[in-house]
Amino acid sequence: MSLYENLVTQTQMNYSRYYSLYAAGKTPYELSKKEPLPYKEQIQNFAQQVKDAQCIIVGGASGLSAAGGGDFYYEDNASYRKYFGKFAEKYGFNGAFAGMMHQFDTREEHWGYLATFLHTTQTAEARKPYLDLDAIIKGKDFHILTTNQDTQFMKLYEEEQVSEIQGDHRFFQCSKQCCDETWDAVKPVEEMIAAMGEGTKVPSELIPRCPHCGAEMFPWVRGYGNFLQGTKYDRQYQKISDYVQTHGKEKMLLIELGVGRMTPMFIQEPFWNLTLSLPDVYYIGVNDKYAFLPQQIEDKGMIMVSNIADVLADVRKEIESEKTDYSRKTVTMGK
Ligand SMILES: [Zn+2]
């Protein structure tokens, strides 16, 4: 098992053991009692840590996408209506995931919904918080780890720079997991959307099927009980593990963005463990609700309870204004 998957497995056991605590929005870790810095100083510290780091690992979770307008998963709001309007009216779903759990009368209607869901994320532009983050880490040596399946990071980076440990909407797998293969989902989704038009069903012949066993394909994502944890999955964990192993002795910054309380085992707790065990790590967590910073790492990190979109925009401003000041000084000195 790779280094990072091993970290996840360990924290997963912790999660099962203390499940009721986690379910109540708490954590079994002893938390820091230090007063947080004022917001402005937190932003300055964030910018300084980026500047000082030799390498950066960003852990992007659901709160990051939600902050950028990808907030249609769990509620019936304006953005849900924008993309899923005809299904919202017909079924009254409370967000995109509710529709994914619905038993549609026909497979054609089921795929009409599924194709709409995938098409929405596949074709979305990279959103503002992602662009701000990109400006912040520009020029640094970095790796991205994400539990988001919406492919936002893939609109900005090469496959090798991103570990997508919970799957990716651009790929299909066999729903029955009969083989260790994944297939492109972008073109078939485009065809289904075009054929569906204003309706809510796709033609039967466009329903994608496994070429080996004939079962329907399914998006390559965790969450529905049939996630294919084969070669592609192992590769994701290998990328992040290799990065940690190669850069483990350097001055490293870990940036955790938007981890929810139900999934601390993929980014948050492994990041805490790395902060503790590697020689020179600084940890920054940004979360809109929970001020969780373990006491054991309180001198090696900071937690910001703030709106993620605002934080990334402000850190970007801070870093870019420093860059401007620097170049101005250089010009003056040359005279
Ligand atoms: Zn199959």
Order of helices and strands: HHHEHHHHHEEEEHEHEHEEH
Quick one: CATH class of the largest domain? Alpha Beta
CATH architecture of the largest domain: 3-Layer(aba) Sandwich
Strand order of the largest sheet: 3-2-1-7-8-9
How would you name the CATH homologous superfamily of the largest domain?
A: TPP-binding domain
Overall residue-averaged pLDDT value: 94
The biggest sheet, with number of strands, parallel, antiparallel or mixed sense and barrel status, is:
6 strands, parallel
Number of strands: 9
User: Structural class of the helix and strand makeup?
Assistant: alpha/beta
Bound molecules: zinc ion
Question: Can you tell me the residue ranges where pLDDT is under 50 for at least 5 consecutive residues?
Answer: none
Q: Percent of residues in helical segments?
A: 40-55%
The N- to C-terminal Cα distance equals: 59 Å
Descriptors for this entry?
45% helix; SIR2/SIRT2 'Small Domain'; 2 domains; six-stranded parallel sheet; three-stranded antiparallel sheet; Rossmann fold; alpha/beta; 335 residues
Describe the structure.
By secondary structure, this protein is of the alpha/beta class. The chain folds into two domains: 206 residues, 3-Layer(aba) Sandwich (Rossmann fold), CATH 3.40.50.1220; 112 residues, SIR2/SIRT2 'Small Domain' (2-Layer Sandwich), CATH 3.30.1600. A six-stranded parallel β-sheet has the order 3-2-1-7-8-9, with helices on both faces. Strands 5-4-6 form a three-stranded antiparallel β-sheet. Helix 7 crosses helix 9 and helix 8 runs parallel beside helix 12. The protein is globular. The structure holds zinc ion (ZN). The site of zinc ion has 8 residues, from loops.
